[in-house]
What does this fold into?
Amino acid sequence: MENVISKAYNFFTKKIVYHSVFWLALLMLLTLIEGVENGLMFTFSNELINLLFYAAIVYFNLFYLIPNYLAKNKFTTYFGLLILSTIIITPLKIFTFYQKFHEFPSLQTELLNNQFSFFLLTFFIAGSSTIGKIISDWIRHMREKQELENQTMQSELRFLKTQINPHFLFNTLNNLYALTLKKSDIAPDIVIKLSEMMRYMLYECNEKRVLLSNEVHYIRNYLDLEGLRQGKNVEINFKVEGIINTQKIAPLMFTPFLENSFKHGLSNHISKGFVNIHLKAEENSVHFHIENSKPETKPVQVHPRSGGIGLVNLRRRLELVYPGKYNLQVDDNPNSYGVIMDIELD
It folds into this structure.
């Protein structure tokens, strides 16, 4: 059934088809309006001649005058040629009808008395085709612009996500490498957690939206992994409030905050640090608050760091995915750093 509908759509959207349907429908309509007082074929032939002349000036306008003059901003020349075309078409049309009405002197007289009206009507038809062309070109331009913006947005989102995933992987592998050097017993547990997280990123995060429940599970894995690595030096609290069922969210929206909390917020200069996370889920929105402790003095950086690529990308993603539907607040205090993010879900 869908295949039939698709073929029908492709057929009727061809220019020659829908133009033919338009003129045929107009011919039938004008014949019905004119009536059959002098016979159906007489009226039908009159309207057919009418439409042939109208079609002649319309297509001359669409395919020659508009692209060669109006589209090139030659407005005076365009309108002059359009009027000239109408002046040429109108007498030809009147002459044709005059010959056709040789058995109807009254109709011939009426033709001669209404030549200016025929001129105005023909010019109006030609002008209407110009307006229709301008409107259709504008609609097509807006549609193409929208499609281009969507393609650009999707490309940029894919680019931003490719920056987030390797960034997180790089940090985690560094942590895992340090533990393997120490021959830590918790290294296998980290490998399992990392495997689950990578599976999520590879197979689920390619979608535009993922279940909020899966994102929460990903956060728990992340925190478990960091908890194993940090040991007792860091107190990690993750509170989930509300009912999470079918809500969906753009993937990895919380990851940059998690990365920054552990990589940049906490350091070996803190004997006892904390990371507190509160996620409140509602039917059509999600509230996320994360706060971490900071060292009293910033550690000396042997190697310059990336400059917060994750957070910069997240702000850009929010603008692309949830324009006008999010609020992001950063609280940078002397001893703590906090971020509050509210998102209105689709």
Summary: The mean pLDDT is 83.
